[in-house]
């Protein structure tokens, strides 16, 4: 049975993401672009925007502002050691709450009756704070960073990948160990067997996490010979 | 998490000394070299070793030889700068 409520929520979220993306990328004809009208549009309406790196992207103006001394004056309070520790801790707590509520674990804190509760958006606040504290370096495209910042950014992604591997492994192991099901229906993957899924999932996760860096490297053949 | 990174060969520099002798601020030098203003500070404090191209660019802006700014040995043991 189709959940219209879930469909509408998903549609609203996707539309909001598309709206923000259109707003940030273009200066003109935003509504027409939003509804997908093919044009003709002048190229002049497009902001300078790169997609070469980062997970959420950042425009030239945003990165240049974030790297300026004025930005450090405005958001310096987010860049102190103490503030950064708080941001990291808040992020960890926020994500733990989302996972906890999202899976609707037994003996829960009563935080959630659905998978899209208000507190699921707490990570958005901590994401913003972390992004501002890092001066958008993690999301900045290569072209706008100097060699030191690039080294720093790349090292951060290296460490982040390891953390991601640990987090995914932990979630998969916990999910299997506790035999979690969001609803009884989701246990039935058509003709698929939950036990088979439970055994296969960790292998898929481990295979993907361990293979991806090598796959990316061999895709950039000029780097490895 | 993570292993200890490979030990890097230390690179000594007297960028600050040369920059001040030329009457340039960090921001001005950074602008000329097309790097972030903090990167100059990191190099001067020895917390970051620049690439060969950046080292050569800095030397060119400061109108001196790259060996007068960067060295694999501490500068006290070396001869006086040519600038």
From TrEMBL, chain A:
- Alphabetically ordered keywords of this record: Membrane, Transmembrane, Transmembrane helix
The name of this protein is Unannotated protein
Bilayer-spanning residue ranges? 6-23, 86-103, 118-138, 159-178, 198-219
From TrEMBL, chain B:
Q: Where is the signal peptide?
A: none
The chain positions of domain HTH cro/C1-type read 15-69
PROSITE patterns, per this entry? HTH_CROC1 (PS50943)
Q: Which InterPro entries match?
A: Cro/C1-type_HTH, Lambda_DNA-bd_dom_sf
For this UniProt entry, the molecular function terms from Gene Ontology, in alphabetical order, are: DNA binding
Pfam families of this UniProt entry? HTH_3 (PF01381)
Q: Name the chain's protein.
A: Unannotated protein
* Organism this protein belongs to: freshwater metagenome
**Lineage of the native species?**
unclassified sequences, metagenomes, ecological metagenomes
């Amino acid at each position: 049975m189709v959940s219209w409520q879930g469909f509408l929520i998903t549609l609203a979220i996707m539309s909001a993401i598309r709206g923000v993306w259109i707003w940030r990328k273009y200066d003109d004809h935003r509504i027409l672009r939003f509804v997908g009208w093919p044009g003709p549009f002048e190229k002049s309406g497009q902001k300078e925007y790169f997609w070469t790196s980062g997970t959420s992207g950042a425009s030239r103006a945003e990165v240049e502002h974030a790297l300026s001394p004025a930005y450090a004056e405005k958001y310096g309070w987010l860049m102190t050691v103490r503030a950064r520790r708080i941001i990291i801790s808040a992020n960890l707590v926020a994500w733990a709450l989302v996972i906890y509520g999202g899976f609707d674990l037994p003996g829960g804190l009563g935080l959630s009756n659905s998978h899209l509760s208000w507190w699921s958006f707490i990570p958005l606040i901590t994401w913003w704070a972390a992004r501002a504290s890092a001066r958008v370096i993690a999301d900045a495209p290569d072209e706008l960073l100097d060699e030191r910042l690039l080294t720093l950014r790349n090292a951060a992604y290296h460490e982040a990948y390891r953390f991601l591997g640990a987090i995914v492994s932990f979630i998969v192991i916990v999910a299997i160990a506790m035999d979690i099901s969001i609803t009884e229906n989701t246990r039935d993957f058509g003709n698929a067997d939950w036990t088979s899924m439970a055994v296969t999932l960790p292998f898929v996760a481990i295979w993907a996490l361990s293979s991806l860096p090598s796959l990316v490297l061999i895709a950039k053949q000029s780097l490895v010979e | 998490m993570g292993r200890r990174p490979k030990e890097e060969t230390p690179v000594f520099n007297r960028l600050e000394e040369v920059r001040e002798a030329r009457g340039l601020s960090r921001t001005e030098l950074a602008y000329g070299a097309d790097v972030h203003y903090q990167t100059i500070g990191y190099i001067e404090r020895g917390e970051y070793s620049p690439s060969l191209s950046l080292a050569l660019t800095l030397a060119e802006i400061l109108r001196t030889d790259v060996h007068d700014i960067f060295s694999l040995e501490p500068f006290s043991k070396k001869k006086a700068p040519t600038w």
